[in-house]
Every structure is written in structure tokens, then in C-alpha cells.
Amino acid sequence: xxxxxxxxxxxxxxxxxxxxxxxxxxxxxxxxxxxxxxxxxxxxxxxxxxxxxxxxxxxxxxxxxxxxxxxxxxxxxxxxxxxxxxxxxxxxxxxxxxxxxxxxxxxxxxxxxxxxxxxxxxxxxxxxxxxxxxxxxxxxxxxxxxxxxxxxxxxxxxxxxxxxxxxxxxxxxxxxxxxxx
Length: 181
Description:
Helix content: 25-40%
Shape: elongated
Structural class: alpha/beta
Strand content: 15-25%
């Protein structure tokens, strides 16, 4: 996903199945409905139309999510109660913060594809997020992606071991041939 999303606290990570939803800016009824509908392991992927004018998600909703086994929340909008959410340890990635509350009138759309960060998020997509990026995978690609990630981790572990033994990155990567300077 394109940049602009930030974890609320250092070290926040999440992984799970996408439950996309669209909230009308200034209204959070769809979030309440999605929390009630979500299954353990779901990640709420909230299309808030990029609005930072209110914070539709806060501490009470984070606790409700945590108690239901929801894996986290990603929103192109703002959230509130950031310190309290961080203290709960509930993973939230947002584009901003805003203490202003919202109405509860519009049911929004839940469980249909939405656009976040320049990509379409479909129900059941795999969401993985940390401080560096938010990645989306089609569920059918999960096994191949996991195998590739494990292979890369093994290669990097070997490289780090070789560095600890005194080699340089130039020699490990074969970049020292030909006296490059």
C-alpha cells in the first residue's frame, strides 16, 4: 500500500484476513457494525475517504476489537485515544489523529472491496503490517509468499553470520571482483 499509514506505537505489527469497510466521514456506525460482524483474526480495513476531520475509532472500540480477537485496524483516516490504544497493545495503522467524535447514523458498507493506499482491498485478502509497510496478498498467494519470505530469512541469517566472522558485504555479495572503488 502507498505510504502515509503509521503505526500508533513503535513495534506495532499485525497479520490477518481483511474485512474491508467503508465509513462515511464523520460517522462510525459502520465500524461498530463491522466489529460485531468480524471473526477472530480479521483486520478491519477502513476506507474513511482519507478524511482526517474526525477520529471514528478510539480506546473503547479498540478494547471491543481486542476482546473479539480482531487482529488490528488499518484506516486512511484518523483515530483518537492513541496513547490508550497503544497501552492496550491493539495494532492500529492510521494516517492521522483527531479527537473529534462522530455520529452513528450511516451503516456504510461492510465486506465489499474498498480502496486504501492506492490498492483494492477485498474480503479475505491477507494483511501484514509493520513500521516499514502494509502488504496485501491474495489469500491464494499466501503459501508462495511465505516460502519466499522464509528462504530470504535463511539467506540473510547466513549473510549476518558471515559478517560476524569478519567478511564484508562486498565479498558476500560478490561485489569485490574487479577492484571497484
